[in-house]
């Protein structure tokens, strides 16, 4: 939250930094770089980072100048102080976020703990890491960053070296997946990730908001391929809106009539019953694929007949990324392409929860103030607006409003032609790949040379952006235009008025529009922006409204003031819907978060060599046996009651013999499945009537099994290692089962809105029940793994284990 006090505090830091610079400027290169060890020593002796900040910032400012030839402006130092303080700093495009980050990263690296700069794509991480890394190296610190030209996948040793650097530049996606993979390793020596201490998030609103709706997911073994996708896809095409289903606020669900239709179509009696979980899930997925997810807006079908996701925040295709829980396969069924293999989810995390794991988090972007309330509510972070280094000369012209897309697009084309004839460069920003293709065709009709930058040719992004500010340049782009890359003006362009930004179509939120406008007028350059808006913009959805359609067709007059009101109201609803979806995504993941923390902490202890005490193993075994004996007793009791209701004598010899054989079979089956592959004489008829006797007998078999495994291994240290690994396997198997089920459950419960149920409450209830079931399964599998595994020490001295 912006306040004068915050800026006053930042300016006091600026004054101290500038005073310290006067002393540091006269140092030799060797003396300057030697300051790093002095700062580290002072920190180790108890001096705080806040106390060191003026001198450390001054030192890195001088290093920036000597290595890069760039001395940070006052506003960059203000931003650096805000970033060190854990704020989210709003800095206009072209104000030098990259250089600002060198100061707080250097300062926090003096602690010896990890410091990261996370950005949205590998190109930026590689470019900025290579350039700024020279400064850190000059000051005696190591810096790692991705190699943009290296397509080879890093192994664990290379990743361990990467994350051991003092300062790390990486992407949000790479960090998230590395976190998940690091928590899947089976051995301590395979871990590679550093602890999470300090992070600066570049393009923070894109990462923390726009990308937050889709959790990162690692898939494991393939599922048995379902044949329900095509069947449910056909079923959904027969549904009638408002009769069989309702679409509202970017959600869709069956009406009571639609549920009855589904039950009739699939020949079932309870659509929401557990026995029909898969049918329910697949219908919901197909309904979402047809009604909520649009081709060339949410995804594209490539020339290879594959469905690839489209990142609306950056305009890039998300190669190799698939929607989870079967949603991707439902889209493929809709688009009539080959349905890809569905895989089980083995690990998942949202960006919200990932970045809240850091001890200290900060961020920067050009468009944070519009979302300051949500950022504070979700992350507890205040936004500080940093002044520009030079006065902003860009003129943001009033939006132009049209009743239909034809007038909107052709007016924009005419204006682009008029500007192009003067030589002034023009950047045309649109919402979707479809719109960029359409506008490009209109320009071709008018013989206007231009570049197109969208998800189909993102490879050329840097080159296209580099030329977008040159004389006569016309660039047509999706919302990705220039993200993270400044558009620099060519010779003679300032005199023509700088870059002109033409926005076509009201975007989903004002942040995206401000991002586009910010391409013009960087560092005090001239330029202007203007948006062309109509009732046929995607955000309005006019094709579903007969009244609006009459305005669009010209059958009914409408004032531009009313168009403005309608379009802006639709944008407001879109913003609220996006925020609600992000909150829902966070709520879903928070259900898992406590369980994830518990599981990952348990894994870490086991990997670090924590012993699993014999008493704990015995306690778990007793708990398992108690559950079995209670169920065993229940079966006996039911059989006795059944005999009484049938008026049979309880002491009938033949009946008792048959029941004794049944109980013996159940007991032996339990032993073979959980304790030992060898059976002994067992219990007598009378012993089996006593729950205590059955429990004691089974526990005796457990003790015998533990002794047998200890003797087989023959080394106490190796035996403890075996118990740890057997426990870890049981924990991992149970965790995978749980999160895979919960991924599918999200879609299955979504349809219950039609039954007037609270979807999140339903999800939380079933998730809790599933966790209790998983806890029991893990305990059973711990004992099974320990007692039934074939274990020995090989010739190389390593444990060799074949699990049951």
UniProtKB/TrEMBL annotation:
Q: Which residues make up the binding site for ATP? A: 76, 94-98, 486
Q: Could you tell me which CDD domains the record lists for this protein?
A: DEXDc_SecA, SF2_C_secA
Residue stretches of biased makeup (Basic residues): 641-650
**Cellular localization per UniProt:** Cell membrane; Cytoplasm; Membrane
User: What membrane topology does the UniProt entry give?
Assistant: Peripheral membrane protein
Q: Which keywords fit this entry according to its UniProt record?
A: ATP-binding, Cell membrane, Cytoplasm, Membrane, Nucleotide-binding, Protein transport, Translocase, Translocation, Transport
All residue ranges annotated as the Helicase ATP-binding domain in the record: 78-240
Family of the protein in this entry: Belongs to the SecA family.
Instruction: Indicate what this protein is called per its UniProt record.
Output: Protein translocase subunit SecA
Residue runs in coiled coils = none
Q: Which SUPFAM superfamilies match?
A: Helical scaffold and wing domains of SecA, P-loop containing nucleoside triphosphate hydrolases, Pre-protein crosslinking domain of SecA
A GO biological process of this protein is: protein targeting
Q: What does this protein do?
A: Part of the Sec protein translocase complex. Interacts with the SecYEG preprotein conducting channel. Has a central role in coupling the hydrolysis of ATP to the transfer of proteins into and across the cell membrane, serving as an ATP-driven molecular motor driving the stepwise translocation of polypeptide chains across the membrane.
User: Which GO molecular-function terms appear in the entry?
Assistant: ATP binding; protein-exporting ATPase activity
Its lineage opens with: Bacteria, Bacillati, Bacillota, Clostridia, Lachnospirales
Task: Return the Pfam families for the record.
Answer: P-loop_SecA, SecA_DEAD, SecA_PP_bind, SecA_SW
State which Enzyme Commission number(s) the record gives: 7.4.2.8
Show the GO cellular component annotation of the record. Answer: cell envelope Sec protein transport complex; cytosol; plasma membrane
Q: Among its keywords, does the record have ATP-binding? A: yes
Report quaternary structure and partners: Monomer and homodimer. Part of the essential Sec protein translocation apparatus which comprises SecA, SecYEG and auxiliary proteins SecDF. Other proteins may also be involved.
């Amino acid at each position: 939250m912006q306040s004068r006090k915050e800026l006053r505090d930042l300016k006091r830091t600026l004054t101290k930094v500038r005073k310290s610079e006067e002393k540091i400027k006269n140092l030799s290169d060797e003396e300057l770089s030697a300051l790093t060890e002095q700062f580290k020593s002072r920190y180790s002796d108890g001096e705080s980072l806040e106390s060191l900040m003026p001198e450390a910032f001054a030192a890195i400012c001088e290093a920036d100048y000597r290595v890069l030839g760039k001395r940070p402006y006052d506003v960059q130092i203000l931003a650096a102080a805000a970033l060190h303080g854990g704020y989210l700093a709003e800095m206009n495009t072209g104000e030098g976020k990259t250089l600002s980050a060198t100061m707080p990263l250097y300062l926090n690296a003096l602690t010896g703990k990890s410091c990261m700069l996370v950005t949205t794509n590998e190109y930026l991480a590689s470019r900025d890491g290579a350039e700024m890394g020279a400064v850190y190296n000059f000051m005696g610190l190591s810096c790692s960053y991705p190699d943009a030209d290296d397509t080879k996948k890093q192994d664990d040793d290379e990743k361990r070296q990467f994350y051991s650097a003092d300062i790390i530049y990486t992407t949000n996606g790479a960090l998230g997946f590395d976190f998940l993979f690091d928590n899947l390793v089976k051995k301590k020596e395979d871990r590679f990730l550093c602890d999470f201490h300090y992070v600066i998030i570049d393009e923070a609103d894109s990462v923390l908001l726009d990308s937050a709706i889709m959790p990162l997911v690692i898939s494991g073994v393939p599922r048995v391929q379902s044949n329900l996708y095509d069947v449910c896809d056909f079923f959904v095409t027969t549904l009638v809106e408002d009769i069989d289903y309702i679409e509202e606020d970017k959600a869709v669900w069956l009406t009571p009539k639609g549920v009855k239709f589904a039950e009739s179509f699939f020949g079932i009696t309870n659509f929401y019953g557990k026995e029909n979980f898969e049918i329910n899930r697949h219908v919901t997925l197909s309904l979402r694929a047809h009604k909520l997810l649009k081709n060339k807006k949410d995804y594209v079908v490539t020339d290879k007949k594959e469905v690839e996701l489209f990142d609306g925040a950056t305009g890039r295709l998300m190669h190799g990324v698939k929607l989870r829980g079967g949603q991707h396969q439902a889209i493929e069924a809709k688009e009539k392409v080959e349905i890809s293999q569905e895989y089980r989810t083995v690990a998942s995390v949202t960006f919200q929860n990932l970045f809240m794991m850091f001890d200290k988090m900060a961020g920067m972007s050009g468009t944070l103030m519009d979302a300051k309330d949500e950022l504070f509510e979700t992350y507890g972070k205040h936004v500080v607006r940093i002044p520009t280094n030079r006065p902003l000369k860009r003129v943001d012209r009033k939006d132009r409003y049209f009743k239909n897309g034809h007038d909107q697009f052709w007016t924009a084309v005419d204006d682009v032609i008029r500007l192009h004839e003067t030589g002034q460069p023009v950047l045309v920003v649109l919402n979707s790949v479809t719109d960029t293709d359409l506008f490009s065709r209109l320009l071709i009709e008018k013989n206007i040379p231009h570049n197109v930058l969208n998800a189909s040719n993102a490879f050329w992004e840097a080159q296209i952006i580099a030329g977008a500010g040159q004389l006569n340049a016309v660039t047509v782009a999706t919302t990705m235009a220039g993200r993270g890359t400044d558009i620099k003006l060519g010779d003679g362009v300032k005199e023509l008025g700088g870059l002109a930004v033409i926005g076509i179509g009201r975007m989903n939120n004002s942040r995206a529009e401000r991002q586009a406008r910010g391409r013009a007028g960087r560092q005090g350059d001239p330029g202007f922006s203007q948006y062309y808006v109509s009732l046929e913009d995607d955000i309005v959805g006019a094709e579903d409204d007969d009244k609006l359609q009459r305005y669009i067709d010209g059958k009914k007059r409408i004032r531009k003031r009313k168009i403005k009101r309608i379009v802006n109201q639709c944008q407001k609803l879109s913003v609220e819907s996006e925020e609600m979806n992000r909150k829902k995504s966070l709520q879903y993941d928070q259900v898992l978060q406590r369980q994830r923390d518990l599981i990952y902490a348990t894994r870490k202890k086991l990997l670090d060599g924590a012993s699993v005490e014999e008493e704990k193993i015995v306690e778990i075994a007793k708990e398992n046996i108690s559950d079995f004996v209670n169920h065993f007793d229940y079966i006996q009791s039911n059989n006795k009651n059944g005999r009484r209701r049938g008026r049979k004598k309880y002491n009938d010899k033949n009946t008792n013999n048959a029941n004794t054989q049944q109980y013996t079979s159940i007991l032996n089956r339990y032993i073979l499945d959980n304790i030992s592959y060898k059976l002994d004489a067992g219990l007598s008829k009378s012993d089996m009537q006593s729950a205590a006797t059955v429990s004691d007998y089974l526990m005796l078999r457990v003790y015998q099994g533990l002794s047998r495994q200890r003797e087989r291994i023959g080394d106490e240290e190796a035996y403890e290692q075996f118990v740890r690994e057997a426990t870890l396997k049981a924990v991992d198997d149970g965790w995978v089962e749980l999160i895979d089920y919960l991924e599918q459950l999200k879609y299955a419960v979504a349809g219950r809105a039609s039954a007037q149920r609270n979807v999140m409450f339903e999800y939380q209830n079933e998730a809790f029940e599933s966790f209790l079931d998983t806890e029991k399964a893990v305990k059973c599998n711990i004992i099974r793994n320990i007692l039934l595994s074939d274990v020995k020490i090989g010739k190389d001295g390593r444990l060799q284990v074949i699990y049951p």
